[in-house]
Amino acid sequence: MTKEHEFKTWLEQGGAQTEAGRNSRAYAIRTIERNLSALGMPHRDLDEAWEADRFEALRERLRKIREDARTGGQDYRILMPDSDNPHNRLSNWGSWLGQYGRFLAGDPPGAAKDADRIRQYILEHYIEPAREEGRDHVDVLVRDVNEALGLKEAWPNICQALAGRIFQDMAQLPEPERIGADQSSATVFRFKLDETVQSDGSRPFVLFDATGAPFQPVRNYNRSSGVSAFRIKPRGAGNKADEAIETEDIVDVARAMLVDGLASRVKAIAGGPVNYLTYGGDKLVRYELSPEIAQAIGVPPRGGVNGTSSADDGRATDAKIQKGFTPMNLILYGPPGTGKTFSTAAEAVRLCGEPVPQDRAELMAVYQRLVAAGRVEFVTFHQSMAYEDFVEGRQPMTGADGEGEAESAGFRLETVHGIFRRIAKRAETSRGRSSGDDMIRLEDRQVFKMSIGEANNPEDAHLFEEAIEGGYTLLGFDDIDWSDEKYASREAIFEACKDHRDGSGDIDSRSGWVQMPFRFRNWVRHGDIVIVSKGNQQFRAIGEFVGDYEFKPRPEGGYAHRRAVRWLWLDRDGVAVSEIYSRGFMQQSIYLLYDSELNIPALERYMNSQRNDGGDEPDQFVLIIDEINRANISKVFGELITLLEADKRLNQPNAVRVRLPYSGDEFGVPSNLHILGTMNTADRSIALLDTALRRRFTFREMMPDASILEDAGQKCGIDLPRLLATINERIEYLYDREHQIGHAYFTACSSRADVDEVMRHKVIPLLAEYFFEDWAKIAAVLGDLEPGEGSITGGFLKRAILKPPPGLEDGDAVARFRWQVRSVDEGFDYSKLVGT
Questions:
Q1: From 299, 370, 490, 552, which residue has the greatest number of CB atoms within 10 Å?
Q2: Coiled coil: which residue ranges (predicted)?
Q3: CA of residue 637 relative to chain centroid, distance
Q4: What pLDDT, on a 0 to 100 scale, did the predictor assign at position 399?
Q5: What is the average pLDDT value for the chain, to the nearest integer?
Q6: Is the pLDDT of residue 265 over 90?
């Protein structure tokens, strides 16, 4: 093994953190290479084996040795003569051989790519130790991986790296089971280590009956016919393995799953026509099939099973989601603590066309996914909020913004979009549904930034248009044909660049003349994503690489290097790079973007939002404005007051556009942008809200609901519904209905101590604010006020008589009192307040 040192260095850069781990991999590769002849391979070394078939025959041989070892065979002793537990070690060796192949292929080390670091870490710290211990499965908590690798809340990156086919192939594992919310820090991936991945990529197939008891897994690769076969349960059979039948007909499998109502934990059949399955517990409740299979088994292409329909299972049909939507302008108003802000989350999920889960945690998981994708934005209004923050304004900028520009001294004023224009831009450029079973996902794709000419140079404008029209991307630099295989080497490109300049010029292997062609030719893979920049702060196109490197010289010279691209998204005006990436672009023609800095949900939404141009209705977007009455509405909204009306939205009968004062752009509000607001009526009267805004919004009152507190009251041993109702009735009598106490103050209470804490630190201070420190009224609300002018020891408050100063003892002094809240040691007495 002549490249052992280079391989270890490559491993270390890719995330193999321990020297022992790197040595184990090198030892395995050395052992395999030393025994190639004994393994039946005709190659002298692994370099020759890689050139022959990319290790395909060798990895198949290792798989057969593993299968032989399962049945008590001894072939494994070719590699491991003294091992008593060869199967798991062989799994590791197979994955390490795959890594060595990537090293020989010249793949860039994973140091620049977090996905590689993540895969390497999981393999080294989870999969391999679990195999050595003989465990049947291992669980990986996303939060633990994020902390161990020092990543910055990279939950989506970790989830996609672990769920993708690259890791499954690398670790020789089937698709993991995902437990918990999707793309969350609490997501758990369960990898089953005792299942075998077949040579055709298929997995053991297990069907469950209504009780959830499984059939035994069976190997589903038929060597004689070379196709997959599945065990299914015929109608009326029991749940024993010997009562199952084996079939190679995918129609039989689909019928068993759908018509017979069998439940399965299998999400889909790899490569098969079952495109979408949803489970309630262990029961299949919704499905989507290809038309051919649907016709063959006699069911609709979409629907529910076991008597349910797609509407019954809580998911609206596509027609309900897509057709006939009306722009919604809604304000939820009411006293504090009535759940207005939380209700906007549920309303936003509904307006985005998603099913609204009943469980709070599940609802918030869906809501956060929509926020991450940029379909929901949240902003809180305050007294300093201005038009420049909300719509657009001028901000000072320093430095350069375009490719090839020099850094400039001083600063310049540039128009910057506010939160409303940003989400309106997303809504306007969305022309189709960005979610669904056929959506393009990032998964294990690399993401490249590319510039096509200088964005601010009019003479280069034709290059971008040509690339979009022709379905390719362009790279400049020397007009040298890099098609020859020898240019897989950076050194070869360097030498060719030197020769092209007759050895003159300031150039080395790190210069852009060498680096950019090397990346463009050798790093890019089919399926990778390209983001075309517009200066350093914007992007204007997203595409998918679908072709190999091509050399197409031009008569005028320059930009002769091409790769075919399927363009997915286009906006010539450009969108801020902050929408999808946490930093500005660098002034390099092509380079890999850091996975940890990408907003993956937002990028995936952009990639899919224009794929159904002219077909489906666009995605729905929601802007939530919390405390909308705290700002100067006329000052913040400006001309939007007119544009918000439903019939004046874009694509509506009375659509209106206005020219904005800073940018000079013509602007209208898209019809697929909904606006939700909340207003705390205890802060400011609803009557004071701008009349023009009131006419353009629907107002929905949210008052306290004491019945919600029944379960909490049982846990605490206090009649919380009666307590809240009594307090609010007295507040309404003494003040008004707008200043009641919301039920949300008490919903999290699970003990009497929790209720005491809420009363002491939230309710009583709020009452003091309402009644301007008039403690007699506060005591009346709490049931502690007594007639007369004596001392009081109430359930919450105590009143003591203050002695008059000297000279006022003869009756001229007015009776004065000191009010105090009972101490923590004294506790509160709720008997008067709740009538017990």
A1: 370
A2: none
A3: 31
A4: 58
A5: 78
A6: no
The two structure tokens encoding residue 192: 């089953």
Residue 440 and residue 607 in contact, taking contact as beta carbons nearer than 8 Å: yes
Q: Which residue's structure tokens are 């040795």?
A: 65
pLDDT at 790: 87
What tokens does 697 get? 């919004």
Domain boundaries of the chain, sorted by first residue: 4-112, 221-315, 329-394+619-701, 452-572+584-597, 706-834
For residue 685, give both structure tokens: 């009267």
The candidate with the shortest Cα–Cα distance to 281, out of 259, 244, 306, 301, is 306
CA distances for 124 relative to 153, 205, 265, angstroms: 21, 28, 28
3-state secondary structure of 190: strand
Q: And the tokens for 567? A: 């363009």
CB atoms within 10 A of CB 827: 13
Token pair of 142 as six digits: 């996303």
| Cα separation, 460 vs 451, whole angstroms | 11
Q: How long a stretch of residues is the chain? A: 836
Average pLDDT over residues 784-804: 90
3-state DSSP call for residue 182? Answer: coil
Among the listed residues 116, 108, 14, 97, the one whose alpha carbon sits nearest the alpha carbon of residue 50: 97
For the chain, the C-alpha Rg in angstroms (whole number) is 34
Of 800, 835, 802, 796, which is closest to residue 819 (Cα–Cα)? 800
Assigned token pair, 587: 């002034």
Q: Give CA separation, 724 vs 94, 314, 780, 835, in Å.
A: 65, 33, 14, 12
Instruction: Work out the pLDDT band at 248, boundaries 50, 70, 90.
Output: low
pLDDT digits (tens, 9 = 90+) for 58-83: 888 888 888 888 777 888 888 887 66
| CA distance linking residue 6 with residue 47, whole number of Å | 14
pLDDT at 182: 66
Instruction: Quote the pLDDT of residue 621.
Output: 94
Q: What is the pLDDT of residues 583-630, one digit of tens each?
A: 888 888 999 998 888 988 899 989 988 876 445 678 899 999 999 888
Q: Which CATH class is domain 329-394+619-701?
A: alpha beta
Q: Which residue has the higher pLDDT, 225 or 114?
A: 114
How many other C-beta atoms lie within 10 A of the C-beta of residue 582?
12
In this structure, are residues 770 and 682 in contact, taking their beta carbons and an 8 Å threshold?
Answer: yes
Residue 308 has pLDDT above 70, yes or no: no
Helical H segments across 14-85, by residue range: 19-34, 46-53, 56-70
The residue type of 801 is I
